[in-house]
C-alpha cells in the first residue's frame, strides 16, 4: 500500500534516499583548512587546559547514550502535512551540520597524527561524537521513510577553505550555539511534555554537553593562539563571525517557524534567547561581542526576513529570469545594507571583564 504521507515535497536520489537540500548561503557548509599551519601551532601557552579537555573526551560520557529505545518503534504517520515537512528539514539540516563537523575533525585528526598528537587525538574524539550525532539524526529521518546518503554528500558538496583561525571562530560558535539550541528545546519540552512530538528530544540534554565540550576545546585552543583574540583584526573578525552565525540562524528559523510552533515554541522568541545566551558565552573568550540587547538588532534582521520572502515570491513567479534579476537586486542591496549597519553597531568590549575574571 502506498503511504500518502511518506515524502511530502521531497525529491529522491533513489527510493527512500533524499536529494540533499540545495546549497545556499544559509545551508550548513563543509570546510577544509591549512593542515600544515594547524600542525605548527604552539599549544604550550594553554597545554594543561587542553590536556584536561582531552581527558574529558577520552572519558566518553555519552558512549551509551545514543541508543534508540522502544518509543521509536511505532508509526509516525500522525506527524503529517507541513509539520512533517519542516520536521524532516530540521533533521536534515542538523544531520548535515553534524556530518560536516565529523568530516572536518576526522581529516584534521588524520593529517595531524604524526605532527601534533595532542590536537590529532582531540579532533579524532570529537569526530567520534559528531559521527554519533549524524548517525542518530539520519536514523531518525528513516522513521519518516527518508534518509541521507552521507557518502554522496561527502563527494557532492563544495568545500569552503578557511584559515585555521577562521575555523576556530566558526566552529567555536557553531558548537556553543548548538548547545544553547538543544538545551533550550530540551528545557521547554521538559516543562511541556505534551509538546514533545518525537522521542529524539529526550536525548538533547546529554547531547548538548558534547557540543559544550567541543566549544570549550576551541575556546582553549584560541587562548593558546593569542593572535586569534588579542589585536584589532581579531575584534573585527569576532564581530563578523558572531553576526554571520546569528543572522544565518535567525533567517533560517523564522522562515521555518512552523517547526517551532509544532513544539509549542515561538521561533522569534526562541532565537532571541539563543542569540543572547550564545553572545554572553562568547564574551568569555572573544574580545568583543555584539550588542544584541538593542531592539534594532532584531528589527534589521526582520527586514532581511521580509526581503527573503519577497525574493522567494519572485523566484517562484512566471517572470522571465533576466527580469527577476532586476526585481531581486534592490532586495539584495537592502539586506546587505541591514547587515552592514548591524556589523558597524558599537560592540561591547569584553577585555576588561575577562581580565578581572582571570
Topology:
Elements: E1 12-14, E2 17-18, E3 30-32, H1 35-39, H2 47-59, H3 81-112, H4 117-142, H5 150-156, E4 159-161, H6 164-191, H7 204-223, H8 232-255, H9 257-262, H10 267-282, E5 288-289, H11 295-315, H12 321-343, E6 348-349, H13 351-357
Parallel strand pairs: 3-4
Antiparallel strand pairs: 1-2, 5-6
Helix pairs in contact: 2-4, 2-7, 3-4, 4-7, 6-7, 6-8, 6-10, 8-10, 8-11, 11-12
Descriptive account of the structure:
With 358 residues, the protein is mainly α. It is built from 13 helices and six strands. Helix 8 packs antiparallel against helix 10. The chain is globular, with a radius of gyration of 21 Å. The protein starts with 11 loop residues before the first strand and ends with a helix.
Which characteristics define this entry?
358 residues, mainly alpha, two-stranded antiparallel sheet, two-stranded parallel sheet, 13 helices, 6 strands, disordered N terminus
Question: What's this, in brief?
Answer:
The chain has helices spanning 35-39, 47-59, 81-112, 117-142, 150-156, 164-191, 204-223, 232-255, 257-262, 267-282, 295-315, 321-343, 351-357; strands at 12-14, 17-18, 30-32, 159-161, 288-289, 348-349. With 358 residues, the protein is mainly alpha-helical.
Strand content: under 5%
Structural class: mainly alpha
| Cα distance spanning the termini | 65 Å
Report on the biggest sheet: 2 strands, antiparallel
Tell me how many strands there are: 6
Count of helical stretches: 13
Helix content: 55-70%
Shape: globular
Order of helices and strands: EEEHHHHHEHHHHHEHHEH
Unreliable stretches (pLDDT < 50, length at least 5) are 1-7
Instruction: Please give the radius of gyration in angstroms.
Output: 21 Å
Mean pLDDT: 92
Biggest sheet strand line-up: 1-2
